[in-house]
Protein: O-antigen ligase-related domain-containing protein
Amino acid sequence: MTPSISLESRLGFVLLLSLPQFFVIKVMGMWLPLALVAVVLLFPELIIRYKKLARDRTVLLLIALMATQCLALAWSVDKALGIKFIVYEAIFIVVFSAAKHSDWEKLRRQPATWAFALGCYLLAGFIVVCRIFPELENAFLLSEWSGIFINPNVQQGLADGSIRNNVFDPVKAGGIFVNANVASCYLGMLSLCALACIKRPRLAWGISLPLLVAVFSTGSKTATVILIGLTIVYLAAAFVLKNLQAARMALVLGAITASMMILFYSSIPQQFFETIASQDIGQVSAPTAISDERNPRGAALDNAEDSLSSRLLIWQYGLEAFEEKPIVGQGYGGWQEGFSGYVKRLGEEGVELRDGFPPHNTFIYLWSQSGALSVVFAILLLWHWSGISLSAIGKNREKEHGLRMAMALTGAWVWLTVHGMGDNTGLLGDAHQVTLLALVIAGIDNLSERKRASAA
Structure:
């Protein structure tokens, strides 16, 4: 019955659900998002085209990575964590297969795709509001119905104080994300995807701009650095290609980035936002507040989460752990066990570091979880994506929309990758990002191969 529904309709529906996730299914104590279950709708394409997929380098490298991760489960203390990452990679393969063989023009016209775009704008607006009124974000995150969009186990941890994250920092905002850095990465990818999918240049920039405003509203400094870096890379590409369109794209992105930095980092706008917040939030009823003991907005967390010094200490532990088990890694859950002892040792030496920090680096995390071989496969995968991206840009250098699409989609996956080098987005991102990333890579692959005129 499923094949009678067009591939584009099913793919659009899966894309739509990837935004809210909808945690409404509980199995053996574990909450499964509806977005995960909906991926089953794309299985027919996976079965029909399995021979072609068996020759696709992206799929082959991911299968090799999954094999090393399955092997690492044998010496892991937290097998559930390993299964989660393997499931994410399987989702990527299924969505990638469907997106690679879909008609992108039809996909753009699907009602579910339009609903997804509307949902992205609602998310962006909500994050901006949360940045101006942080106590409203507190009230949302601590409310029971936020568990529809956030894993209820995580939501409960936020409510009772057992889970802390930087979204509670008043100068950060995440909306339905419990980490502002992950929110900024997702919004950044969305803004570049909007720039890629809209054919008319001015309309494309106009649609992308509000999403970029929301990126800065998250308060993520990593996102600012990435936008500056993308501007420089786009300028370099324009110089190499001797292409005026690429130069124009770089200059517009640079102008927007500079304007947002002035708006969000200068003192006058900050004082304006604080004045509004102090006037309005002062009238919020007492039940929305939380005690100082449970308030994750404490200064210690605010400073520790994003500080470079904390990351250097975290990476120092990664180096020490690597020297002990360079080949097989620590297995899933091994980092958490070893890091606790490292934090205690630092405390005895008079160095403060909060326990529970993940590695804040994709390669360190991959090595820790499933060994050096998984890092090799990840590097080969990124190398392959770099190759098809350069090919897509080169083959579309004479087409305004084709070139913009190739450069923007490349920027989307590069954003996620670079973000993962200093945060915890991982190789394929979180549950929201993995579906979007699969579409991005499929689009670049089609542009590179030039198999579908509709892709460009």
